[in-house]
Specification:
Layout (H helix, E strand, L loop, with lengths): L1 H60 L15 E7 L9 H18 L3 E7 L1 H9 L4 E5 L8 H16 L5 E9 L5 E9 L23 H81 L1
Parallel strand pairs: 1-2, 1-4, 2-3
Antiparallel strand pairs: 4-5
Helix pairs in contact: 1-5, 4-5
Length: 296
């Protein structure tokens, strides 16, 4: 009985130690969510102004012509960039993204095209390498706090592969951050850029511009920067979603640990009561034996 009590108490100490770790990770993730949200909000005005600049170019020229806007009539190879995390312990965050990526690649194959896979985050890289899926590009080490230079490197690689004909379309699978409680895996086509993305459909007053250099040279600078900005926004959204998912997963783990400690404490109390009962029975039995011996 004493051995059982020691085992239960050892388990209680082990669960309590784990609970301290999960609670600390929950608090760290919660603190990072706010910073991640701030980075997402700070990036939006730049994207809006960049889009407005392209709208002004399109309005002045009457049309947009650029290789990054070119719809290829018979695409053969479709790029799929999958954004995952470098670390686990984030619930179903990575599983949802990878499941959507697999569905997207199945639909690409159903169109008669070959998917070309790119991945960011150690979890996604490990997933595809384990399954023998060749990666055209991989990046890791920045999933929680993505720097802009990472988006520049990824964006330029995607643009180069599209411009050189290694891919005919480029889709990105990432997690859209709606709130600290709502995140959803989503996929969007980044290349070729849809002309409707850079045309203003709202009725608002416009200023008149003189372009120097010409509109085509301006688009050569703006459109690649637009793609890089979209990649950066996807990285920021995924980072905020990762921290929110990890906070939720760690909170659930902490709550489960607390409940397990309560169950184990009841087991320890019951074992201790049984131990005390046996000790009392031994004492009573010994006293009765002594009393019987004295009467004889």
């Amino acid at each position: 009985m004493g051995a059982k009590l020691r085992v239960v108490r050892r388990r209680i100490r082990s669960v309590q130690s784990t609970m301290k770790i999960t609670r600390a990770m929950e608090l760290i993730a919660a603190s990072r969510i706010l910073k991640a949200q701030q980075r997402v909000e700070a990036a939006r005005p730049y994207a809006e102004l960049l889009t407005r600049a392209m709208e002004d170019v399109a309005r002045q020229t009457g049309a947009l012509f650029h290789p990054l806007l070119e719809e290829r009539p018979e695409p053969a190879r479709v790029g799929v960039l999958v954004i995952t995390s470098d670390r686990g312990l984030a619930g179903s965050y990575n599983a949802n993204v990878l499941r959507l990526a697999e569905d997207l690649m199945d639909s690409v194959r159903a169109r008669g095209c070959e998917p070309v896979t790119y991945a960011t985050g150690k979890k996604g890289i490990s997933y595809f390498r384990f399954r023998g899926v060749p990666l055209a590009g991989s990046w890791s080490g920045f999933s929680e706090v993505p720097p802009y230079r990472a988006a520049v490197e990824i964006g330029r690689r995607l643009i180069a592969d599209f411009a050189e004909g290694r891919i005919d379309e480029q889709h990105v699978v990432y997690t859209d951050f709606r709130s600290a409680f709502t995140q959803r895996a989503t996929s969007k086509r980044f290349l070729p850029i849809s002309p409707t993305e850079v045309r203003d459909v709202r009725r608002r007053p416009h200023a008149e511009y003189l372009f120097e250099p010409g509109p085509s040279e301006i688009l050569d600078e703006l459109l690649p920067q637009y793609v890089i900005t979209k990649v950066y926004a996807a990285l920021l959204e995924s980072a905020a979603s990762e921290n929110a998912a990890r906070r939720r997963a760690m909170k659930a783990a902490t709550d489960n640990a607390e409940e397990l400690v309560k169950v184990l404490t009841r087991q320890a109390n019951r074992a201790r009561q049984d131990e005390i009962t046996l000790e009392i029975m031994d004492i009573v039995g010994g006293a009765e034996a002594l009393a019987s011996a004295a009467e004889e």
